């Protein structure tokens, strides 16, 4: 009989410690312990384009400078994003039509390299697909909403001209592009 009060006391103590630990785990950390959210610079038409760290699908470093002198349409997307997948045929057709006139579409896939490679096996694209080497490469291009898809038009001299949130339809893309690349 003497063991029963000790067992009850130990169970009550364990429940109290467990409740305290659960309450601490569910309580949000104080603001001083929270990591600051990544900040995107404001998009400014005419600003020079950033030069983020990117790689090709084999892991080789790639710089956007290799397309200097061409119009660039950077499209931030992911294989798991339904609007991104719907937009890909529009971008593929644009690259085929306007590539000979100096436009280069570049896809920047925001997903794991293996997932991107697997997706491209079933849905090949006619333009380069690059991977970020740092988190949130769209932030450097003014994607303040951090949504996908997100597109940026860059002039041959390296100035960012326009941005677009969401998937393009063919008519929207045609109206968005300057006559020089249509």
TrEMBL record:
Keyword Hydrolase: no
Alphabetical list of PROSITE patterns matching this protein: THIOREDOXIN_1, THIOREDOXIN_2
The organism's place on the tree of life at top rank: Bacteria
GO molecular function: antioxidant activity; disulfide oxidoreductase activity
Alphabetized InterPro entries for the sequence: AhpC/TSA (IPR000866), Thioredoxin-like_sf (IPR036249), Thioredoxin_CS (IPR017937), Thioredoxin_domain (IPR013766), Thioredoxin_ResA/DsbE_sf (IPR050553)
Chain ranges of the Thioredoxin domain: 43-182
CDD domains xrefs: TlpA_like_family
Keywords attached to this entry: Redox-active center
Gene3D superfamilies hit by this protein: Glutaredoxin
Protein's recorded name: Thioredoxin domain-containing protein
Organism of provenance: Metallibacterium scheffleri
Lineage: Bacteria, Pseudomonadati, Pseudomonadota, Gammaproteobacteria, Lysobacterales
């Amino acid at each position: 009989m003497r063991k029963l009060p000790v067992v009850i006391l130990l169970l009550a103590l364990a429940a109290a410690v467990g409740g305290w630990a659960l309450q601490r785990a569910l309580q949000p950390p104080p603001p001083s312990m929270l990591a600051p959210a990544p900040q995107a610079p404001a998009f400014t038409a005419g600003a020079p384009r950033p030069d983020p760290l990117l790689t090709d699908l084999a892991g080789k470093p790639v710089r956007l400078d290799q397309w200097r002198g061409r119009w660039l349409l950077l499209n931030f997307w992911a294989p798991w994003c339904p609007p991104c997948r719907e937009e890909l045929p529009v971008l593929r057709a644009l690259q085929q039509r306007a590539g000979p006139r100096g436009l280069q579409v570049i896809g920047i896939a925001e997903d794991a390299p293996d997932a991107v490679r697997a997706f491209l096996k079933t849905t090949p694209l006619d333009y380069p697909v690059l991977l970020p080497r740092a988190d949130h490469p769209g932030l450097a291009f003014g994607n303040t909403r951090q949504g996908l898809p997100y597109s940026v038009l860059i002039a041959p001299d390296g100035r960012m001209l326009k941005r677009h949130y969401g998937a393009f339809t063919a008519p929207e893309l045609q109206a968005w592009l300057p006559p020089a690349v249509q």
